[in-house]
Amino acid sequence: MANVQMHAMRLFRELGYNATTVEQIAEAAEISPSTFFRYFSTKEDVVITDNYDPLLIAAFEDQPSDLSPLQAVRNAMISGMDDMSPDELETMRERNQLIMAVPELRGATLNNLIQTMQLLTEIMAKRVGRKPDDLALRTFAGVVVGVNISVMLYYAENPDKDFSKLIDEAFSKLEDGLLL
């Protein structure tokens, strides 16, 4: 999967997202188009699919129980990024810029973020002893996802910034009551 994504990102840089075909990606990765579709449902999925959710869950579950839910999520997200190699961070930056630049990718990412919101609701419910359909938990998860969206957009416009520091700063503002 990572090999296919690596070739896709290279082709997107060279040819542009819209000009790159699944067939070109498959050929570059030395697989058939049907094999491509075993890994990814659509061309958009090759950009938005990642392994961050399992890492987020593990990092969240490792957070001390005395932290507030917001502190636990914040620490989990930052620790996940701190564990990334420079190449992984660069790939994340490239993917983020592409997602924010291509309307089809923004739409596909929204679906992905809704799934992440549901996942956050479930792991938070377990942590605080509530049911996952609790409106407060869903609202909390929506706020966390909203912070991520705002930072992703800011980062796409300011790629020289440190994504981890931006996430930390955004959550800090939220924790302080987001005074404007």
Automatic annotation (TrEMBL):
Domain HTH tetR-type, residue spans: 1-58
InterPro entries given in the database record: Homeodomain-like_sf, HTH-type_TetR-like_transc_reg, HTH_TetR, MftR_C
Molecular functions per Gene Ontology: DNA-binding transcription factor activity; transcription cis-regulatory region binding
DNA-binding region residue numbers: 21-40
Name assigned to this protein: TetR family transcriptional regulator
Highest taxon in the source lineage: Bacteria
Keyword tRNA processing attributed: no
Alphabetized PANTHER family for the sequence: HTH-TYPE TRANSCRIPTIONAL REGULATOR BETI (PTHR30055:SF234), HTH-TYPE TRANSCRIPTIONAL REGULATOR RUTR (PTHR30055)
Keyword Transmembrane helix attached: yes
Organism phylogeny: Bacteria, Bacillati, Bacillota, Bacilli, Bacillales
A Pfam family that the UniProt record links to this protein: TetR_C_14
